[in-house]
Amino acid sequence: MPHSSDSSDSCSFSQTSSSSKQESSDDMRKVQRREKNRIAAQKSRQRQTQKADTLHLLGIAVGFLLPPVLVPNSEDKEKLAHHIGIMFFMTAGVATALFLLVIFVFQEKPPYPPSRAQAMIHTTAPEEYSYTKSIVRLFRNVNFDLLIVSYGLNTGCFYALSTMLNRMVVINYPGEEQNAGRIGLTIVVAGMVGALITGLWLDRTKTYKQTTLLVYIMSFVGMVIYTFTLNLGYLWVVFVTAGVLGFFMTGYLPLGFELAAELTYPESEGTSSGLLNVSAQIFGIIFTISQGQIIDHFGTEAGNIFLCVFLFIGTIITGFIKPDLRRQRANLDNEQTRLQGNKSQIMNYGVCALTPSFPTPAQ
Question: Transmembrane region positions (predicted)?
């Protein structure tokens, strides 16, 4: 009879152990599925951000290419007004279509947050969020203040260069209006490639400050090279130098937004990127008007040197930005907490499986 009891208890323990292992295996599979979904969400966010930046630059490229084709160089003011009107109506049509898409198609936010940092932001109650207080907190962030100025200087130079490009090319190469548009297209397409490469690089290295500073330095170098090769008389040289300039200067635009999101977490990325755009528009207006006046009085080379000076200043300012990557730190802290929770869960299952309660042998 004792043997029968031992056999029954052994069978019971075997079943309990098997059940515990099965539960542990099921929970591990659930953890793995959640991990895969989390990684997929983060990768999806990065891919969608890169795609949006690329399409934004593609729109700028089309804006360079189409106006010289739609509006011919003509002394007839009525003909000129007719073609400009067609171009404006086309622009209005595209803007109206985008407006309708935003109203009826775009979602306010994705069904699942793309990162743990975003999940923490979404848990804040709406009544606790103040847009004014958020802006005040952003301006108290010294690193973000430096980024606002440096981003505004770089992007403002890009806006001024884009606006004055046709004029500068025609002054040095009369009758080359269409090639001026193609040079602008070259700048933006090269920038699309630059934005894609820097995005992939950031995804692998997370070196936001170092990458931003390097791209800024190369933007300055590219602007210097472009300045002193524009009037050499070789149009193909202008295409090459403009492409190099665009690769770094246009490729810098999405880098600024990503660095701002890192420096200002947990503030809304929409607020920080909006302030960067305001800075870019202000500097763009100032630089465009100023460069136009300089070109009128001193020529294209002096106008471009004017931009080089401010790119150099922006490079120095960027060097003073401290890499306080708050979003990365928040994601890392949450990841460590999650892993510790999983370890604790697995260890608990192990204890249950390895410390069974043996029956007392019958005397």
Answer: 54-71, 83-106, 142-161, 181-201, 213-229, 235-255, 275-295, 301-321
Whole-number Å distance between alpha carbons of 114 and 118: 7
Contact present, 111 and 224 (Cβ < 8 Å): no
Please give the distance of CA 8 from its chain centroid, rounded to a whole number: 64
pLDDT one-digit tens code per residue, 325-353: 887 787 776 665 665 655 555 455 444 44
Q: Which CATH number is associated with domain 29-343?
A: 1.20.1250.20
Question: Is residue 195 scored above 50 in pLDDT?
Answer: yes
Contact 275, 183 (CB under 8 A): no
Distance (Å, rounded) from C-alpha 289 to C-alpha 66? 24
Euclidean distance between CA atoms 132 and 178, whole angstroms: 46
DSSP SS3 for 16: helix
Answer yes or no: are the C-beta atoms of 126 and 108 closer than 8 Å: no
Terminal CA-to-CA distance of the chain, rounded, Å? 11
Is 113 in contact with 266 (CB distance < 8 Å)? Answer: no
HSE of 309 in the Cβ direction (CA atoms, 13 Å)? 8
Predicted confidence at residue 20, as pLDDT, reads: 55
Q: Smallest Cα–Cα separation from 69: which of 234, 180, 230?
A: 180
Distance (Å, whole) CA 276 – CA 267:
14
- Using N-to-C axis directions, what is the helix angle for 300-319 and 142-172, rounded to 10°? 160
Write down the pLDDT at residue 9: 53
d(CA 212, CA 358): 64
Of the candidates 160, 308, 154, 165, the one whose C-alpha atom is nearest the C-alpha of residue 242 is: 165
Supply the mean pLDDT for the chain: 79
Confidence bin at 157 (pLDDT 50/70/90): very high
